[in-house]
Specification:
The complex is a heterodimer of chains A (274) and B (290).
Chain A: H1 16-40, H2 58-65, H3 67-100, H4 106-118, H5 121-134, H6 141-147, H7 149-165, H8 170-177, H9 182-193, H10 195-211, H11 214-218, H12 227-234, H13 241-261, H14 263-266
Helix pairs in contact in A: 1-13, 2-13, 3-6, 3-7, 3-10, 3-12, 4-7, 7-10, 8-9, 10-13, 12-13
Chain B: H1 8-33, E1 36-40, E2 43-46, H2 50-57, H3 59-92, H4 97-105, H5 114-123, H6 128-135, H7 146-173, H8 178-186, H9 191-219, H10 223-229, H11 240-249, H12 253-289
Antiparallel strand pairs in B: 1-2
Helix pairs in contact in B: 1-12, 3-7, 3-9, 4-7, 5-10, 7-9, 7-10, 9-12, 11-12
The chains are: A mainly alpha (274), B mainly alpha (290).
């Protein structure tokens, strides 16, 4: 990580205003999380033996006891991981092509990627549902994994391209002289050389697939519910908000783990190609 | 210079095939539907440009467009300066850098349909923010007071996305070589001058990515806005996508498709503007370097 320059004189002084600002920021960011955590440990419905408003583990117990909620966690994990694998598998060769060659139409293809990254899912949700119904991909996590590639493949190509471009071309040339085929070069040399880039890409794909709702809803009508839809189904007329928040707290765990894994890369200036 | 080799397209095949299936094919079908009246998918009636003209003439479309533009303008004018400021502050406190970047990344990993649920819980009568505001004599009424609904939406969106601006801004700032600052110190440049003539130009490329993403995502906000107040009170927070959602839910697919195409054109315009600006910048850089 390149050191961020600080004029020598300022390094020793403890700046007060910045600390105040960061403290206010911390409060602002953490407040909604604190609220969710508190609510998840409160019984928010009248029940036998527990009064409404009591502190209790009942929400988490109910969560574990409900098969649909447990299944939704597995469904989400499955399609998110599948999506990460798909995006890496399709994104890596494409990013390599962008990094090493120019070719006819490369900029147009790149613009198309940009456009699909910024197209709102609700615009494409209906025809995707019809198409996937024909392909028998409705109500399965595979369908969601595939459709999330729409916005994650562009991201994967952007991020991977910047990491591959940082690898000197000599690496490729020596490997090819040694008789490596392209796939073997990818596995033996390129992937180890850009391992952090693979991690950062996996982080972004994981996160954007985990939080997405519009496609996940339209593609799961009767089965294969992801965690987001399981939460939606709990939000009826009189929702048990404690249970909802318990589910929310659980749904945050993978994201927190991902942030922890890439924490040192968050600040690294991966330059995104435009 | 990179060698020109069209065999590189072979490497694009997997990505191209997936994008064709989940992107291009659905887009072409939306385009086709937008010229039809659709009862069932086996029963299409050609109506030409009727859906488009009807929409362009309706006050409803222009009202929603104005609200979406206002929302994006508000969101950008809050999140950009605040995000850049925090990124600048982070350069001064090296020890807090990683924890603060992790902190601002937290809201990015929350499922989008949970964000409004969390905020509604927070501002409810018994919630931490709701009860505090009420105790201060400033009760919040996000359901019937349009101004309050707007405030909640802007604050919530800032909470959700500020981290993106901070992370991108900080990534840009940390890429500036130390020599620039030394030269500025030798010249006795003020802090404002350093920001205006060194930092801002150096991070403008990465900031324009933040502007594009923040503009498009806020312009097309759906999940979060819908749950807060379903576009109310009295359509005061009915944005473009909420209109579209209404049409899809009422099964008027032809009209929904025409609306989708118009939104897609708006999005392309934003992306095109972004690319033109980036190309100009690159051209200007090459002029300086040559």
């Amino acid at each position: 990580m390149s050191p961020v320059p600080v004029p020598a004189g300022e390094r020793t002084r403890t700046p007060v205003l910045p600390l105040l600002l960061l403290a206010a920021l911390g409060l602002f960011i953490l407040l909604p999380f604190a609220q969710s955590l508190i609510t998840s440990f409160v019984s928010t419905m009248a029940r036998d033996g527990i009064r409404e408003g009591d502190v209790s583990l009942i929400n988490f117990i109910n969560l574990v006891k409900t098969p649909a909620l447990r299944a939704s966690i597995l469904n989400s994990t499955f399609y998110v991981l599948l999506n990460v694998v798909l995006c890496l598998a399709a994104g890596l060769p494409a990013a390599y092509a962008y990094s090493r060659y120019s070719f006819t139409g490369d900029r147009h293809f790149f613009f198309m990627l940009l456009i699909f990254r910024v197209t709102p899912p609700v615009v494409l949700s209906l025809p995707i549902f019809i198409l996937f119904a024909h392909l028998n991909l409705v109500n399965t996590p595979v369908g969601i994994a595939l459709v999330h590639c729409l916005f994650n493949i562009p991201i994967a190509i952007w991020v991977l391209e910047s990491f591959i471009s940082a690898v000197p071309r000599e690496l490729d040339e020596t490997a090819f002289l040694d008789g490596y085929s392209l796939p073997r070069f990818f596995v033996r040399h390129l992937i180890p050389a850009i391992a952090p880039g693979i991690g950062v890409t996996a982080f972004f794909c994981f996160i954007f697939s985990w939080v997405e709702v519009v496609f996940a809803r339209i593609l799961t009508v009767t089965a294969g519910m992801p965690i987001t839809m399981a939460i939606n189904s709990l939000l009826g007329i009189r929702p048990d908000i404690g249970l909802v928040m318990a589910m929310n707290v659980v749904s945050l765990i993978p994201g927190l783990a991902m942030i922890y894994f890439v924490r040192h890369h968050l600040a690294r200036g991966f330059v995104i190609r435009t | 210079m990179k060698p020109h080799d069209n065999r590189a397209w072979l490497l694009m095949l997997p990505a191209g095939a997936i994008m064709l299936t989940v992107g291009v094919v659905p887009l072409v079908s939306v385009f086709n539907y937008s010229f039809h009246d659709i009862f069932t998918l086996q029963d299409l009636h050609w109506v030409g440009l009727d859906w488009y003209t009807e929409m362009i003439r309706s006050g409803r479309f222009w009202g929603s467009l104005a609200r979406s533009l206002l929302f994006s303008a508000l969101v950008l004018s809050v999140q950009l300066p605040l995000g850049i400021w925090i990124a600048l502050v982070l350069t001064k406190v090296p020890r807090l850098r990683t924890p603060v970047l992790m902190l601002v990344a937290l809201p990015l990993v929350v499922p989008w349909n949970m964000i409004p649920v969390m905020w509604l819980d927070l501002i409810s009568k018994t919630g931490l923010a709701g009860s505090t505001l009420a105790a201060l004599g400033l009760p919040l009424d996000a359901r019937f007071n349009a101004l309050h609904t707007w405030a909640v939406l802007v604050v919530m969106d800032t909470w959700h996305w500020l981290g993106l601006v901070v992370i991108l801004g900080f990534a840009g700032l940390s890429g500036i070589p130390n020599d620039y600052y030394r030269a500025a110190a030798v010249d006795g440049a003020s802090r404002i001058a350093v920001f205006r003539y060194i930092q801002l130009p150096k991070i403008s490329g990465i900031l324009s990515i933040a502007v594009l993403l923040r503009f498009v995502d806020s312009f097309m906000i759906y999940t979060e806005a819908f749950r807060i107040n379903a576009g109310g009170p009295h359509r005061a927070t009915t944005f473009l996508t909420l209109d579209l959602g209404e049409e899809i839910n009422s099964f008027t697919y032809g009209a929904a498709a025409a609306r989708s195409m118009i939104y897609f054109l708006l999005v392309i315009t934003a992306a095109w503007t972004f690319r033109t600006v980036m190309d100009r910048r690159r051209g200007a850089m090459q002029d300086i370097n040559s």
